[in-house]
Amino acid sequence: MPESIPADSVGLVTPETITFDKPLTLVCGRVLHGYQLKVETYGTLNTKKTNAVLICHALSGHHHAAGYHSMSDRKPGWWDNYIGPGKPIDTNELFVVSLNNIGGCHGSTGPTTINPETGKPFGPDFPVVTVTDWVNTQAMLADYFAIKQWAAVIGGSLGGMQALQWSMAYPERLRYALIIASAPKLSAQNIAFNEVARQAIMKDEDFHGGRYLENSTYPKSGLMLARMVGHITYLSDAAMRSKFGRDLRSGHLNFNYDVDFQVESYLRYQGEVFSEGFDANSYLLMTKALDYFDPAAEFNGDLTAALADTQCKFLLISFTTDWRFSPERSKEIVDALLNAKKEVSYLEVDAPEGHDAFLLPINRYKQAFHAYMNRIIREVA
Amino acid sequence: MPESIPADSVGLVTPETITFDKPLTLVCGRVLHGYQLKVETYGTLNTKKTNAVLICHALSGHHHAAGYHSMSDRKPGWWDNYIGPGKPIDTNELFVVSLNNIGGCHGSTGPTTINPETGKPFGPDFPVVTVTDWVNTQAMLADYFAIKQWAAVIGGSLGGMQALQWSMAYPERLRYALIIASAPKLSAQNIAFNEVARQAIMKDEDFHGGRYLENSTYPKSGLMLARMVGHITYLSDAAMRSKFGRDLRSGHLNFNYDVDFQVESYLRYQGEVFSEGFDANSYLLMTKALDYFDPAAEFNGDLTAALADTQCKFLLISFTTDWRFSPERSKEIVDALLNAKKEVSYLEVDAPEGHDAFLLPINRYKQAFHAYMNRIIREVA
Fold first, then answer.
1. What is d(CA A51, CA B314) in angstroms, rounded to the nearest whole number?
2. Any idea which residues are catalytic in this one (chains A, B) (predicted)?
């Protein structure tokens, strides 16, 4: 709980739910007959509507990116380190829009939503959604706010893929794309980890083919395992070493399967907490959106060709110890942009924290991010 | 099935079961009142008994390291690439002993063995065994064959840890230790992956607290997941990329949770096959033996001090793309041995195959291994 709201916080925020009645045809071919987006905004849209910034969330993210929902919140939004008055995404200057994507489980239309055709939760019947679908709904959201062009679309990890997709799908509708700790597509190893997570969920006896809500159960163990696997890939080996090493929880080995090492305790706890707050069908959908993202595929694998029609300027940021989406993956995008003769800046941040670094307050990252955002603010103010 | 036995194979082999009646006090404090070891031998012990080599197996290994059990075997033993007439571990010159460790599930005393005190399988009551315990039983095995000193103790991965332990526990009983793709202890990340595997098994509804045999069930899904996670860590990112890339199994995306990518199909298959042939309680035991191995712990973390009394010569081999036990982990052992003024050779093999490389026929590895073994043979013949 914040005893008082910090001065550089956006403060108490209230999400809103925005309803879209127009049917949405998804990449998979299925149609959503209307949908809702849960959204938070921070700062004020200027009269020319030129200072709007879109925040795209990663696998387990949502609309609550900054500030607090109440004075009893233990933590602020997930990117509070970077969004607020005087922060890199400066809410004194910018109008920040953050949403929960469709297929999610934090208020936007997704598997836990009641399917109007059946009167029951969509559950496993919710269609497989893609990054392209998300960007299309985000474009509708821009229309809702009468924003013709985003000053910037910004995201980390899966969020960075959305920023990249924006640059290709709606080239004239963003001035800048900030793509952080991301990749142009998953590697076989990335897909393999996602598949383990999916199998863990789907093989849980309480999964019931995805109809656990109807059965008043929940695949808690499966989701916990999925998160444990994921969590290992978010931390670097070095970060785990400095955080836990081989420290024993009780000072001695148990010679049984209770927790011996601190790292086991930490992972179990992370899995436990996550499994209580996230919908399993949503988790499956998010991993598939990751697996399917491959904008170069339509261009015979030629990412340069895929990026040929982009008009925005790009900032790519990667972190040295990120082994989920290593710096090499960001450089693939940078190289393709350079080949396509686009304006791109690239920063590789020396940080021990692994993939999670993109969420954390790291000086060099913060300074570079801030400087780049100031340049955008000067252009759009 | 081999149509005919290759000329450089040890041929058809028959394992034997050796019974030890003397009680064994384990590191955990519990006592095994006798135990059996399942063993294969290849080649002939010379009259001076100086040409014996011990092969130590890794997590999922066993006694069947080379040759065939019958003409209908699809594959030879797990290290057939390196054991046989004219191969690096040359059975024309050496007497090779390969065993299944206690706690295993391939014929040595372990969780599937009937506990004489209850008349039921030990199951989860089988004590947690350590690398030290294994080495102690292997010393009893040496006594059984009247082998005072091994020409070499050789192992990869967890097998390498046993070779390292031999050098410290019985310094005068081996001339050489060959430690391949191994580490002086697990990292926090290694332990984390093991913990995911254990949780996958223990949370399977069919685990029944480890008493699945009594309940006529089997935690197949859990073991499958455990193996899938493990398998990802055995392959390098590069190996997965060149093997599968993002190839689609059916040429198109399914937009459901069937297999889309070849890598998913491969992993599911690997998990499936493994889960049919391995005991879940044994898997738990093997991962704990890995987690617990830390010979420097008794010396305040000083590996050099732990190795002070070793008398054998050492060969360490690592593989560039092995991220389970990276070359840095082998170098920790090399550095400690050099500090302790021991004779050590080290080879880092440039190989794309990741941790699995130690099992595969790789020219440079094979040549160096062969040359080193020839030196041993010249000494002991």
1. 66
2. 157 (nucleophile), 322, 355
Please list every residue in chain A whose beta carbon sits closer than 8 Å to the beta carbon of residue B186.
Answer: 246
Contacts of A202 in chain B (CB under 8 A): 257
CA distance B365 to chain A (A): 25
Please name which of B289, B241, B251 lies closest in space to residue B104, comparing C-alpha atoms. Answer: B289
Beta A120-121 vs A114-115: how paired, if at all?
antiparallel
Per CB-CB distance under 8 Å, the chain B contacts of A229 are: 196, 229
**Residues of B annotated as part of the active site:** 157, 322, 355
- Band (B3; pLDDT cuts 50, 70, 90): confident
Any binding-site annotation on B356?
Answer: yes
Quote the ipTM score.
0.95
Q: Convert the pLDDT of each residue in A193-233 to its tens digit.
A: 999 999 999 999 999 999 999 999 999 999 999 999 999 99
Q: What is the DSSP letter of B78?
A: T
Distances (CA, A) of A201 to A209, A210, A276: 10, 9, 14
Out of B189, B228, B292, name the one closest to residue A196 (CB). B228
Task: Report in angstroms the alpha-carbon separations of B100 from A193, B52, B110, B133.
Answer: 31, 17, 10, 13
Mean pLDDT of the A334-343 span = 98
Asked if residue B63 lies in contact with residue B98, where contact means CB atoms within 8 angstroms, the answer is yes
pLDDT tens track for A302-314 = 999 999 999 999 9
Fold of the CATH domain B16-185+294-380:
Rossmann fold (3.40.50)
Q: How far, in Å, CA of B80 to CA of B87, rounded?
A: 9
Read off φ and ψ for residue B197, nearest 5 degrees.
Answer: -60, -45
- At residue B23, the 3 state secondary structure works out as coil
Distance between CA A92 and CA A42 in Å, rounded? 9
Q: What is the pLDDT of residues B169-191, one digit of tens each?
A: 999 999 999 999 999 999 999 99
Report how far residue A334's alpha carbon sits from residue A356's, in angstroms, rounded to the nearest whole number: 21
Domain ranges within chain B, ordered by starting residue: 16-185+294-380, 190-287
To the nearest whole Å, the CA of A237 is away from the closest chain B CA by 6
Residues ≥6 apart with Cβ < 8 Å to B311: B167, B171, B172
Query: What is the DSSP code string of B301-363?
Result: T-HHHHTTT--SEEEEEEETT-SSS-HHHHHHHHHHHHHTT--EEEEEE--TTGGGGGGS--H
Inter-chain touch A192–B232, beta carbons under 8 Å: yes
Cα distance between residue B43 and residue B95, in whole Å: 5
- In the numeric block, which tokens belong to residue A184? 């142009």
Question: Contact, B94 vs B84, CB < 8 A?
Answer: no
Question: B260–A128: do the CB atoms touch at under 8 Å?
Answer: no
What chain A residue is nearest to B200 in terms of C-alpha separation? A225
Task: Give the global pTM.
Answer: 0.96
Q: Which fold has domain A190-287?
A: Rna Polymerase Sigma Factor; Chain: A (1.10.1740)
d(CA A69, CA A89): 19
Determine contact, residues B278/B220, Cβ cutoff 8 Å.
no
Residue closest to B225 by CA, chosen among A204, A17, A148:
A204
Name the residue type at position B285.
L
- The predicted pLDDT at position A95 comes to 98
Residues in chain A with CB shorter than 8 Å from the CB of B191 are 246, 261, 263-264
Q: Which helix (H) or strand (E) holds A198?
A: helix A188-202
Strands (E), A138-242: 150-156, 174-180
Interface test with B, best of A199, A242, A247, A325 (most B CBs within 10 A): A199
